Amino acid sequence: MLTVLLVSVLLLGYVVVGYPLLLRVLVAVRGPRRVHQADITPALSFVISAYNEADVIREKLENALGLDYPADRREIVVISDCSDDGTDDIVREFSGRGVRLIRQDERKGKTAGLNLAVPLLTGDIVVFSDANAIYNVNALRMLVRNFADEHVGYVTGEARYQLGGAAAADAGERAYWSYEIELKRLETQLGSMVGGDGAIYAIRRPLWRTLPQDAINDFLNPLQIVEAGWRGVYEPQAICYEETSGRFRSEYKRRVRIVSRSWRAVFQAPGVLNPFRVGLFSWCLFSHKLLRWNAGLFAAAAAVAAATLSVESILWWPAQALALFGRDRLGRAFLAGIGDLGVESGLGHIRLAGEGIVGHRQRRGLQPL
Fold it and tell me: Is the pTM of this model over 0.85?
């Protein structure tokens, strides 16, 4: 059990602390890998996935139309996953301003909507966004400038969470993403970051592949792009803001769903596990995702091992103390005295009992036994 405890604690320490430290060491030794950037404006498709987003879709479209990017070089497309709260009607109000609606007549999920829409897009670069993600005015230019590097296949920006939410889950998610951002930065300097962020994520359109409907598109698609030999990079100047779910229960369910589907994604792009094919990216994937997804198992194993060792220690020390005491001369004498006292006490009780019986028979005039 001691081995289980030590291994579990070491693995947890590696996931949380060791991996970031090793990334820093490798970047320092090898030097950061640069990304060639230039102020370019390729044809761009800005895609917004929406399901019953009537409360936020108008603000989102106004935000999209106000972004700093040539209007004749970009299209804005909303994919409605069979919304029934008036979202589609609001989107149609913007048709005269160049916003296009693509509606799924059955609810099939975000990835199915992307499978439907991406082949219909006209841009060389596709930017994926969520309806509740509000972009900084220069976010598109900051994303696109990285595609001046011929080796870059996808770019992920920085999603920041709205301040002022008092819910603990909000604080937890902001802390989690701050940690994630640091890993993305280091992984980019090493080669490619692991995964994307569906709120602010761009790819070269030819690199899109039809995905399984239950796939996490901003995880599987980046894996496929790296598997094909491209880089994935993090752009800290491309910033958007969105709100968290705000509740532990809903956030926990969302995380479980993401992790369970992400496991499948790894095996749907198996080449990313081959270091001879993708280099250090396979180590990054293993450390950043695969081991972290098992952190709960490591923590449970450590807790069970620690509890078992605690119980064993509680039972072991008295036994050892008694055994050691028995080896000492004074201890043996003491234990022997205790034993004699017990024997003598037993004999004394027997003698008193016998005398009582004899006295009782004599009082009643009976013959002695």
Answer: no
| Cβ atoms of residues 231 and 187 within 8 Å | no
> Which distant-in-sequence residues (6+ apart) come within 8 Å of 218 by Cβ?
128, 195, 196, 197, 198, 201
pLDDT tens string 176-234: 778 888 999 999 999 999 999 989 999 999 999 999 998 999 999 999 999 999 999 99
Listed residue (181, 180, 217) closest to 201, CA to CA: 217
**Rounded Cα gap, residues 57 and 91, in angstroms:** 7
Start-to-end C-alpha separation, the chain: 65
Structure tokens at 234: 């993090």
* Mean pLDDT (whole number) for 73-101: 96
Sign of CA dihedral 127, 128, 132, 133: negative
Helix (H) or strand (E) holding 79: strand 74-80
CATH superfamily of 32-291: Spore Coat Polysaccharide Biosynthesis Protein SpsA; Chain A (3.90.550.10)
Cα 143 from Cα 239, distance rounded (Å):
9
Alpha-carbon distance of 302 to 200, in angstroms, equals: 37
User: Whole-angstrom Cα distance, residue 138 to residue 142?
Assistant: 6
Sequence spans of domains, the chain: 32-291, 328-369
Is 300 strand, coil or helix?
Answer: helix
Which residue is associated with the tokens 């990017």? 69
Which residue in 112, 122, 216, 196 sits closest to 152, CA to CA?
Answer: 196
CA distance 217 to 197: 9
| pLDDT computed for residue 176 by the predictor | 74
Q: CA-to-CA distance for 332 and 345, rounded, in angstroms?
A: 19
Between CA 178 and CA 83 the distance in angstroms is 33
Distance CA 315, CA 265 (A): 48
Beta strands in 121-254 (DSSP E): 125-130, 134-135, 152-161, 200-204, 231-242
| 266 in Cβ contact with 223 (< 8 Å) | yes
